[in-house]
Amino acid sequence: MRLTRPVHNSAMKIITANLNGIRAATRKGFWDWFADQNADILCLQELKAHEHQIPLEAQCDGYYRQFHFAEKPGYSGVALYSRKEPDAVHIGLGSIDPDTDWLRFDAEGRFVMADFGKLSVISAYFPSGSSSPERQAGKMIFLEQFLPLATRLKDAGRELIVCGDMNIAHQRIDLKNWRGNQKNSGFLPEERAWFEQWLQSGFIDVFRQRYPDKEQYSWWSNRGQARANNVGWRIDYHVCTPEIAANIKELSVFTDEWYSDHAPVTAVFI
Question: Mean pLDDT, the chain, as a whole number?
Fold first, then answer.
């Protein structure tokens, strides 16, 4: 796809959004909203579609598009849209980490990385463990393998922006009902400890860095009155290496309209 819009040099605007189905989000007006955002990069998760099912509205003239589709129909899948053509694109974790067994996760369509000079932007959809103990065990394997991979990329000199639905609320402030969820996937002590280890290894949750005391969620259950009562979780992140994090200018979560059970999260870097 030809690049028809100018690339900004003064700032970089990156949106991450779990669409819970790209076709459903399209019907709800997501692309009309996105057309007004003037974003440089868009990271999407949970497409729930294969290539031939991507709506025409999602073609997005002026953007290069990279997809990692799940093998299973109607399941998972991630995408990365960029105004600037990437220097390199990596589809699936096995493409950059062939010495680790990523087969089960790559079959689920969970990872796209695009390189722009020394900067790598990642659209990632971390597994959920809520459906069964087996899925939770798989989630922990994913986390244990992901951390050394991210650390190796950082230590090799790459600046990283990891965007996506990470299915973990790191701190108590990151979910409304933390007391009642301490034994539930997404807020288990071992998951939170892993997230803390990730940050201690040299990565920064830029939202929490900028707003240490702000109660802001990015996902709400469709059950009950969770959205109306703002009973949510913050599980959609931009996690960055320090040099990139130091250049954060703006952060916002869009909740004026609803395209999914998740809200788009926008970061602007200068």
Answer: 95
What is the residue extent of each domain of the chain?
12-269
* DSSP bridge partners of 159: 119
Q: Give the active site residues.
A: 165
What's the pTM value of the predicted model, to 2 decimals? Answer: 0.94
**What 3-state class would DSSP assign to 145?**
helix
∠ CA 2-250-125, rounded to 5°:
65
Instruction: Take residue 70 and report the two structure tokens written for it.
Output: 């799940």
Two structure tokens written together for 168: 């973990």
- Distance from C-alpha of 72 to C-alpha of 108, rounded to nearest angstrom: 7
Task: Tell which residue, 208, 253, 211, has the closest CA to residue 230.
Answer: 253
SS3 state at 135: helix
pLDDT at residue 9 tops 80: no
CA 94 from chain centre, in angstroms, equals 18
Task: Give Cβ neighbours of residue 263 (< 8 Å, ≥ 6 apart).
Answer: 17, 217, 218, 219, 236, 253, 254, 255
Task: List Cβ neighbours of 129 (8 Å cut-off, separation of 6 or more).
Answer: 135, 136, 137, 138, 139, 140, 167, 185, 186, 188
Q: 161-202 pLDDT, tens per residue?
A: 999 999 999 999 999 999 999 999 999 999 999 999 999 999
Give the three-state DSSP class for 79: strand
CA–CA gap between residue 64 and residue 61 (Å, rounded)? 8
pLDDT in tens, 62-98: 999 999 999 999 999 999 999 999 999 999 999 999 9
**12-269 has CATH 1.25.40.10 classification:** no
Secondary structure class of 197 (helix, strand, coil): helix
Crossing angle for the helix pair 133-155 and 189-200, nearest 10 degrees?
0
Q: pLDDT of 214-260, one tens digit each?
A: 999 999 999 889 999 999 999 999 999 999 999 999 999 999 999 99
